[in-house]
């Protein structure tokens, strides 16, 4: 079962160009990496490796995703939370906050896994930071929590920001624990196995 928060107050009015550009760039890079050959090689080169930390890979890792569902989930939350935060901050400050939160996620991952040689990829650190900003700026925004089982809609609950963000954190925690238990490769939460099982990817999440 999955929970999707839908921001009923969200609007593309005012042209959230940075959010749209991030979605476009991340999507293009996923398409390029899908047709570029071995993802293992690309992730080892451009993913963030705690045992060999570099500022450049901390940045490039934010724009790489393991597959479609990994990308879709991150970009969905970016759109739900990011549009209004960009309007509130302005484009340049939003860019700075997004990159700062992404780097903060990589730094936290480094502190907790400094000897790991496993490359980390994904935008979760940056998007979690944007969700935190949304929580502070718009605590009473109207949300629908849509509960899915597979493709079937089970229930829709009308709520507000604090419940939506809390449900997202809970869902990410549960799915991360499940990925550790079943070694799922479909979505990278904390640990997923690669094609041969010889390489693993971690996606850091910070709030």
* Through-space gap between termini: 23 Å
Counting DSSP E segments of at least 2 residues, the number of strands comes to 5
> Which structural class fits the helix and strand makeup?
alpha+beta
**Percent range for β-strand residues:** 5-15%
Number of helices: 7
Instruction: Please compute the radius of gyration using only Cα atoms.
Output: 17 Å
What's the CATH architecture name? Answer: Up-down Bundle
Question: Helical amount among residues, as a percent range?
Answer: 40-55%
Mean pLDDT: 79
What is the count of structural domains?
A: 1
Global outline: globular
Could you please say which CATH topology applies here?
A: Rhomboid-like fold
Major sheet strand order: 1-2-3
**Major sheet attributes:** 3 strands, antiparallel
Which segments are poorly predicted (pLDDT under 50) over 5 or more consecutive residues? 183-207
Give the class-level CATH name.
Mainly Alpha
* H and E string: EHHHHHHEEHEE
What does this structure look like?
The chain is α+β, with helices and mostly antiparallel strands. It has a single domain, classed as Rhomboid-like fold (Up-down Bundle), CATH 1.20.1540. The chain is built from seven helices and five strands; from the N terminus they run E-H-H-H-H-H-H-E-E-H-E-E. The strands form two sheets. The protein has a three-stranded antiparallel beta sheet. Strands 4-5 form a two-stranded antiparallel sheet. Strand 2 and strand 3 form a beta hairpin. Helix 1 packs antiparallel against helix 4 and helix 5 packs across helix 6. The radius of gyration is 17 Å and the shape is globular. The two termini are 23 Å apart.
């Amino acid at each position: 079962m999955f929970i999707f928060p839908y921001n009923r107050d969200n609007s593309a009015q005012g042209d959230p160009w940075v959010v749209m550009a991030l979605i476009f760039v991340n999507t293009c890079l996923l398409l390029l990496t899908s047709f570029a050959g071995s993802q293992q090689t690309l992730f080892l080169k451009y993913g963030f490796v705690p045992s060999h930390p570099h500022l450049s890979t901390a940045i490039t890792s934010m724009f790489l995703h393991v597959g479609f569902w990994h990308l879709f989930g991150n970009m969905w939350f970016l759109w739900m939370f990011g549009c209004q935060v960009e309007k509130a901050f302005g484009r340049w400050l939003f860019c700075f906050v997004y990159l700062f939160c992404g780097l903060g996620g990589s730094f936290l991952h480094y502190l907790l896994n400094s000897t790991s040689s496993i490359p980390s990829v994904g935008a979760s650190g940056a998007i979690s930071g944007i969700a935190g900003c949304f929580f502070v700026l718009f605590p009473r925004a109207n949300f629908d929590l849509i509960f899915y089982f597979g493709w079937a809609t089970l229930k829709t609950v009308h709520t507000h920001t604090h419940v939506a963000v809390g449900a997202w954190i809970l869902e990410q925690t549960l799915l991360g624990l499940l990925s550790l238990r079943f070694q799922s490769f479909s979505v990278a939460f904390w640990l997923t196995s690669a094609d041969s099982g010889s390489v693993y990817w971690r996606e850091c999440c910070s709030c």
